[in-house]
Amino acid sequence: MQRFWLQAAIILGAGLIVGLAFSLASPVQLRLGDVNAEFRDRPARPVQQPVKPVEGGSSAAPQSTQASTPTPPAASPASDLFITVEAAKAVHDGGAAVFIDARPLDEYLKGHIPGAMHLEKDALNGPPPAKVLNYLPGMEVVVYCHGELCTDSENVIKRLAALKKDIGPFRIIQAGFPGWVKAGLPTATGPEVGFE
Amino acid sequence: MTGSFSLVALLLRIGLGGLFLLAAFYKLRDPMTFAEAVMAYRMGLPDALTQLATYAVPWTEVFCGVALVLGLWTRAAAAVFIALIGVFLVGIISVIARDLNITCGCFGKFKLYCEGPVGWCKVGENLALSALAGVLLVCGGGRISLDSAAARLAKKPT
Questions:
Q1: Could you say which of A55, B34, B63, B118 has the lowest number of CB atoms within 10 Å?
Q2: Using one digit for the tens of pLDDT, what is the confidence trace for B42-78?
Q3: H-helix or E-strand containing B92?
Q4: Total domain count, chain B
Q5: Please, are residues A50 and A61 in contact by the beta-carbon 8 Å criterion?
Q6: d(CA A112, CA A38)
Q7: Nearest to B32 among A8, A23, A29 (CB)
Q8: Half-sphere exposure (CA, 13 Å, Cβ side) for A99?
Q9: Contact A7 B101 (CB under 8 A)
Q10: What's the mean pLDDT in B102-111?
């Protein structure tokens, strides 16, 4: 019996020791606060201006040309990472941010915030898609998924920040797409437009 | 120990050990995704512990899986298997109790039986795996195993 416990302890101990060595050697990125704080004190600068989405359903995407006038600094404390639907609507109306839908594609096709880019976290596990590099650097990014119980928005942001492509600041719509719909705000359907 | 049981034990060992090795492969191939899966359970773990779990869980699965497949220290490996499944069960039941809508993060995109968010199906799946490992815990790895070979060597008169 003593040998049984010793063997079990060796298996568990080996897993723990090797696991500890790996976790020290290659830590994974866990915190979101640091990600947003990184952009907190960024000075105002020219950014790409998205076209204001058309009310009532059709999609609109950011233009790829540089705007001549700088937008106000979108920097804010890390605690502003999560925003309400109302705040998201104001940002949407301002037209200076890219909205990202982090939900599965089939749900995006059925309905999304007008002008939103579809981007799941798995698309960022390897080299980023061209649309990420073409449309997101220098932009404020608002991400949403299923709401408060969904972590995909956070996971997309962590991966975008890890690219070090000057993307941000980041926002997450706390109530997600369900909250947007519940507030009676406009939605669009079908594939994304303008992020070729 | 009959020959037919030895064959069953071999299949069980390869099945359960292989399953753990597959799970470990997916977790170690993309540790970020597994770390996110751990955090999605919202167990209030400090970051250091989440970091450790991200690697310690799959590496324990590796050692446990290899031991099961080889039939080395089979009973102990089966006990570790059941213990790990027990930890997963605690997490799964707490997720159900808190009505969280998350996916398991167990095998990456590969699904064993249950699909969709974590739910009672996953509890049943884990209990079934524990029951199968329980057979190895009680009866050992059978004749076609390193344990058996070592025992035969030890009994051989010099």
A1: A55
A2: 788 888 899 999 999 999 999 999 999 999 999 999 9
A3: helix B74-97
A4: 1
A5: yes
A6: 29
A7: A29
A8: 35
A9: no
A10: 66
